[in-house]
Design a protein that fits this description.
Blueprint lengths: L2 H44 L2 H6 L2 E4 L7 H4 L5 E3 L4 H13 L7 E4 L12 H5 L4 H17 L4 E2 L23 H18 L2 E7 L18 H8 L1 H9 L3 E4 L3 E2 L2 E2 L4 H11 L5 E3 L8 H4 L5 H11 L4 E2 L3 H11 L5 H17 L20 H14 L1 E5 L12 E5 L25 H12 L2 E5 L12 H9 L3 E7 L20 H10 L4 E6 L9 H4 L2 E6 L5 H9 L63 E8 L3 E2 L4 E10 L5 E10 L11 E10 L4 E9 L5 E2 L5 E3 L2 E8 L5 E8 L3 E3 L9 E4 L1
Helix pairs in contact: 1-14, 6-7, 6-15, 7-9, 12-13, 15-20, 16-20
Amino acid sequence: MRLSDVQGLAGLALALVLATPFSLQAEAQETAVQSIERRINELLGKMTLEEKVGQLNLVSHGPLLRWEDISEGKAGALLNFNSAQDVARAQALARQSRLKIPPLFGLDVLHGFRTQFPLPLGEAAAFSPRISRLASEWAAKEAAYVGVNWTFAPMADLSRDSRWGRIVEGFGEDPTLGAALTAARVEGFRSGGLAAATKHFAGYGAPQGGRDYDTTYIPRAEMYDTYLPPFRAAVEAGSASFMAAFNALNGEPSTANPWLLTDVLRQQWGFDGFVTSDWVGIGELINHGIAADGAEAARKAILAGVDMDMMGLLYIKHLPDEVRAGRVPESIVDESVRRVLRTKFRMGLFDRPGIDPSRLDSAFPSPESRQTAREVARETFVLLQNRDGVLPVPAGARSIAVIGPLADAPHDQMGPHAARGHKEDSVTILEGIRRHAQGAGITIRHAPACDLFCRNTEALPAALEAARQSDFVIAVFGEPQELSGEAASRAHLELNGRQIEVLEELAKTGKPMALVLMGGRPLVLGSVAERIPAILMAWYPGTEAGPAVADVLFGDVSPSGKLPLTWPRATGQLPLYYNRLPSGRPTKPENRFTLQYIDEAITPLYPFGWGLSYTQFAYSDAAIGRKQLGEGQALEVSVSVKNTGAREGQEVVQLYTRDPVASRSRPLRELKAFEKIALKPGETKRVTLRVPVESLGFHLDDGTYLVEEGAIQVFVGGSSLAEQVGEAEIARTFRIPPMERRASASTIVQ
């Protein structure tokens, strides 16, 4: 036997040995899947029609809760249970039911449970899936500790209109950023012990006039290109469930929309979890005008693909009769129950011991959760402007005036949907500045200047006096929590109340001044942007707002956040977004009959992806690895990024593309990849961003993805204003069917 033959046999033997564990693992995994399906079938075979419908009933803790429904098998899931004592009681009642099926315990855990992290829109400004995963995992760990096992999050609704209050719960305006962060949040929740209910499916973030709950009109191709990618990313990341949206999409309410819930979600994407309605969403089909009564609403919802009725009580009231009358096949009910049971088996609920009722959420915030919240928060702050290097606070400042009602607002800094957040846990911005100043021997003077909504300015003279007596002024203004979130749409995005008047008076003192904005959306700043040199957007920073803001203001950490949405100059510009389609009449300032306003600039105040640092970054030597791209290949762009300043800092390297000539008009720019890197002073890193050619096309109305031959322009930089670095050529046109999964972008940093 020749040596080469021996080596070949040895290599084959080694390959078989290495393959064996993976083969066994695959076989075991297949057996586990089969085992779950067998247990589901056995359980379904024992269930009465009423018990099946009970699994589709989601009821809330509160005055209307009938505890006996749990023991009678009439509640498959429960929401707003947030204490171990109540969870344990409900679990005990479920064990008394005939079939002993464990319930799901759901809660809106969006950005923390007891320890509050920045709101999702703020978190998105970190441009870091790692940060999103970390924050979600911590939120899940705390909620799971007291028995919550299901969260109505993440919100994957893309929005281009800051008038919509719920924009604070999402990731902003870009589908690539949204897909990456939605997937990271699903993974983080699961890692921490919570199943995700990705919401709101779909189109909810584009209501007419920015009015929450209003209808949306989005062409199907645009749905596929812009609004659906984050939801598909959630499926691929393992979201256990989805929540149907309140809105009507193109005249068809999402809660009774078979195209969304069955054609797209289940058939095209292969999702086999379950779908829940939003709060009384099925009953609202009557208000939408597509159902005459509760029975018709229930029938239309379940036939469209809504498996679970949240607080509507319409399934449990009407479905048995609908089935017996032949209007709803029992097989449809069986399939919905199968999806719910499949999720419960996958979560291990049937084999999990009950929660220890002695557990209390007061175990949090812990020192570790506080430190993590602080680290996450300071990654999210966006330095919008910093003329003359006003920030960080100069080392020579011996006294600081902290002005504004939101400087000492422990409740407001948590933002909406704060789960079990306690304002007593919050470290306010004022307290964070005081702690930092105490160690540096700096005198702090605080004056609110006006009430929380800045309607009464009787305290302004005292604030002005405090400013005059100090070396530096930190003004903390913005949106009180009540002005943001669900049911908080705004027609006017100017700083509410008399804030502009107060800030202008403070600016007249001539003192070096920085404005810290707290809020859930971009605000129209008007003259403030001209009068105040340094503006830091802090969003709603959460429990550790004070230490995190102080870290950045005093320069211990350089700001690194980037805007996840476009910042308007005026409310009338909305909806406003960077990835718009080109016009046949591009803007020419000297030509009235081109794209523009006659009373405002066409450009935003700050563009998407914008954010300054205390240091500077230089981009150089950009190179496109392969100029001719075929199917299965990737656009590979490398660039050197150098920290040319004197401080450490982080930069978000952003890659945009444009298809300048296509069969249908394509956006002026589209974010395709990004990477956040840390650089010491003088340090250079080589970043390679890789975008599969399968991501350089667009969708047709039927969901087919079309990649057309021709040139693709490439832009790389620190915001959506990135400069063009070249172009590549797609060799030939090809199509990807709706059911095929496309490759995703990747990054190499050297």
